[in-house]
Amino acid sequence: MRALIGGNRIAFLAFFASHIVFTLLYDLQAIGKPFYPQILQDVVTTYADIVSDPHMSEPFELWFQSIVFFEMIFQLPYFFVAVYMFADPQRRSYPRWFQMVSIVYGSHTATTLLPILPPIWFRSDEEAPTKLRLLVIMIYLPYLIFPAWIAAISACDSSGECARQDTRKSKVQ
Q1: What's the start-to-end Cα distance of the chain, in Å?
Q2: Helix 76-87 / helix 96-121 crossing angle, nearest 10 deg
Q3: Partners of 127 in the beta sheet?
Q4: Is 23 exposed, middle or buried (0-12, 13-18, 19+ CB in 10 A)?
Q5: Where in the sequence is the domain holding 116, given as residue range(s)?
Q6: Assigned domain for 170 exists
Q7: How far apart are CA 165 and CA 6, in angstroms?
Q8: Is 94 within a domain?
Q9: How many domains would you assign to the chain?
Q10: Residue 149: which H helix or E strand, with range?
Q11: For the segment 8-26, what is each residue's pLDDT rounded down to a tens digit?
């Protein structure tokens, strides 16, 4: 798989680096809140209260906890590998195994957002006003966009179809 360059590489590097922090400090509280210091518990509780995020509010629903559990065992290790891969601006390509894992990561993670977004949007105005629901959806959207994007890039590069299209475009111009 060809290496990402320029702004795309930096965007993915920032996304995965920040995702490590958010996963460790916030998301994993859904499955292990008692193990966190009170100050971090308070941050999550305050966030959930302010924006009315139904997923980060206690009690955590079992289906959401299962998604967070998979985030811990599969996605978090992938984040570290992705940061390592995207950190080198001189890299020309990524190993095939990384390409395949990126397809699996991206397709799985983007799919997990499908059950996460509707409960946010389809709340009543009494539970959360429209502007607040849009805000929470905007907070979650990068976790749909970046995984879908890396899956598409990896799958496209795997098929070679995109490379052929790029070559055709450059010959026409």
Answers
A1: 25
A2: 120
A3: none
A4: middle
A5: 6-160
A6: no
A7: 20
A8: yes
A9: 1
A10: helix 142-159
A11: 999 999 999 999 999 999 9
Beta-ladder partners of 2 = 93
d(CA 52, CA 20): 23
Q: 136 exposed, middle or buried (CB, 10 Å; 0-12, 13-18, 19+)?
A: buried
In whole angstroms, give the CA distance from residue 110 to residue 44: 23
Taking CA 137 as the corner, what is the angle to CA 58 and CA 101, rounded to the nearest 5 degrees? 90
Token pair listed for 155: 């799958």
Note whether residue 38 is domain-resident: yes
Query: CA 54, 60, 61, 67: dihedral to nearest 10 degrees?
Result: 90
Please answer whether residues 30 and 58 qualify as being in contact, where contact means their C-beta atoms are separated by less than 8 angstroms.
no
How is residue 43 written in tokens?
């941050």
Give domain status of residue 102, yes or no.
yes
Query: How far is 64 from 162, CA to CA, in rounded Å?
Result: 35
Query: What single letter denotes the amino acid at residue 3?
Result: A
pTM of the model as a whole: 0.88
Q: Give the length of the chain.
A: 173
- The mean pLDDT value of the chain amounts to 92
